[in-house]
Amino acid sequence: MNNNFQRKAILAYGVVLALGMSTTLNGADVLSSEDRLFFAEGLYNRQLYKQAASEYARYLEDYPNANGNDALLCKLGESLRLSGDKQGACKVFYTLAKHKESKYNTEALLKLASMLLDINKVDESEQISDSLLQKNPPKDILAEALYLHGSALVRQGKTEAAIKDFDRLIRECGTSHYLPFAKVALGSLLADPEGNQLNRAEQLLKEAISSGLPTKTLEAESYFYLGCTRFAMKKYRDAVNDFVALTSKFPEDGRLNDVYIKLAWSYFLAGMYTEASSSAIAALESRGGFTQAQLAELRYVAANAYFEVSNYDKALELYKSIVQVDSNSTFGQKASFNLARAYYNKEKFDEAIDTLRPILNLPQHREDALWLSAEAASAAKRTDVAVQNYRILASEFPNGDYADDALYRIGCVYRAAEQREEAASAFLQLSEKYPRSEFASDALFFAAHSYAIDEDERALGLWKRFVKEHSGNPKVPAATYHIAVEENRRGNNAEALDAFILIYSAYPQSEFAGEAYLWSGNLFSQKGELAQAEKNFRKALTYKLSVDSEQQAKFMLAIVLQKQKKAYMNYAKKFPNDEMSPDFLFKAVDISVAYNALNPQKTIDITNVLIDNYPDFEMTPMAMFIKGFVYENQMNNYEKALDTYHQFLDKYPNNPMAADVQSTIKNIGIPLDELIKTFEQ
């Protein structure tokens, strides 16, 4: 039998064995040692690892001193590993590891470290890989040893040390087969939400995915941790993309139940509420295997998403389903609270209060529950219950999120109920206890306002304190106005006037500026400063005033003008030769024309004094024209009007108004409709 034929026969026999046909043959009796090795290799190459292991073991038993047995030990160990006999594989690699002179010693140690990890003998694995690292091995060995050592450290909970191993692998072994494994491993460790290396974790995992990963398992792991990293970074839309990629590419991944929950939360926190509810509901309907807690969490996310889009009916339905199953679980308690919120938003305040009662005794929810219960009671006009809960909240949680808000709300509730003393007390407590609160300034303002309504002497001090301590508050003009009014009420006219002037000077666009001009006009009038009073009354009338204030401004303006007219006339009478006298007389004329329409003769009398005594005064021609105007339009005395107009032309023929006077003479006494027809022609 030739050699070739014999080898074919042996291979055929190998196939028979591979196919499981019942035959036994003692290879040592029939085949040479060379052919037996060839036979074992054939089994190994055909991935018949159990049979190959058996042949390698028999050969080593029969030829214990043969050359190359260390290589066969390595093959035997690998065959056992690949066949699933990890314990047996470890024994073989242990044996080979003892042969320190063998060129397969390092390979055996690496295999052993890996196998020990597989069978959860982590400490031994870590020791073996550490021993390899101590030898300063070449980079191919270094990379694998670093990866195994880091993996063992992770199992031991030695995260910081593991990070150093993976980081070193990435830095020093850039071309290694283990590089993507190290990037994923390091990225997963740095993905800790409590850590400060999320940016690097994201970069490592992105690099690993973009470079192409050698195994589906590693790729799935990369997407998972990248999604978790971006979730921790609050990049919720990116996290959505990662989790969607994981679910679509790896529908059988063992983490999918957790992933679907994270995906729903990512949608929710990204503000994609429709997608969040749809994703959560779809997971609930299409998948099994969720734990009770996971089911509750999915329903909770969906309910929250419905809540955010104001679909309170669906939210209520889901919250109730969680509470009914287990109201004492984490999500059962959260659902109970949000159930009350949904009732509150539907204005079912009594239901909200009832739902919150059992939660009030839960330490982790008591603060929020007290607040919502108080708010619901306030909305339901149950003042006593509201105030009671606000007070408990402020007392039990003085440093909590709601303490200052609760005191403010107590003040508001009492203020709405017109219990002003109680309101002021609550507001003052807030401003003194929480001076940096966002409500502190308004609280002080409303405390002052509560006292002011009853003309309580305490109001003025609080108004002044408010202006001093909260100068940037938009209510400062109002407070200053109240200060001015209160000072005026007390008879402190100088202080009142200063405050009114400050309002219209510093806050001219304020709603109180018009009133400040009116009040200050009164005070200037009382001081005898009639010109300033007139100015302020006129300025007040440029603002939108209340009907009463507008009437008062007009009335006081008329009085001031009358006072001014008398003052002007008395001055001219007393000091006829004073250079100011003719000017004062003309001002008196101007005032009289506007405010003496019912007694026009007074205007005529004043103009006569000016015309007779000061014919050369620059405004005397205008006074004469006004005299003619009054005769014509206010007294309907056309004869005297014409006489006055002719006197004007005789005395002042070159005056710029002469042409207007001539035109007036031509048209005097003509009815308006006829005059219009004349102009139309």
Tell me, what is the CATH class of the domain at 1-119? Mainly Alpha
Strand-pairing-aware structural class? mainly alpha
CATH topology of the domain at 1-119: Serine Threonine Protein Phosphatase 5, Tetratricopeptide repeat
| Mean of residue pLDDT values | 88
The CATH architecture of the domain at 1-119 can be named as: Alpha Horseshoe
Q: Count of DSSP helices?
A: 37
What kind of sheet is the major sheet? Answer: none
| Number of strand segments | 0
- The CATH superfamily of the domain at 1-119 is identified as Tetratricopeptide repeat domain
Q: Which residue ranges are poorly predicted, with pLDDT under 50 across at least 5 consecutive positions? A: 1-29
Q: Categorize the overall geometry.
A: elongated
How do you describe this structure in short?
This protein is an all-alpha fold. It contains 37 helices and no strands. The protein has helices spanning 3-18, 27-30, 33-45, 49-62, 69-83, 86-98, 105-118, 122-133, 139-155, 159-172, 179-190, 198-211, 216-232, 236-249, 256-269, 273-286, 292-308, 312-325, 330-345, 349-356, 366-379, 383-396, 403-416, 420-433, 440-453, 458-469, 476-489, 493-506, 513-526, 530-540, 547-574, 581-595, 601-613, 620-634, 638-651, 658-667, 672-680.
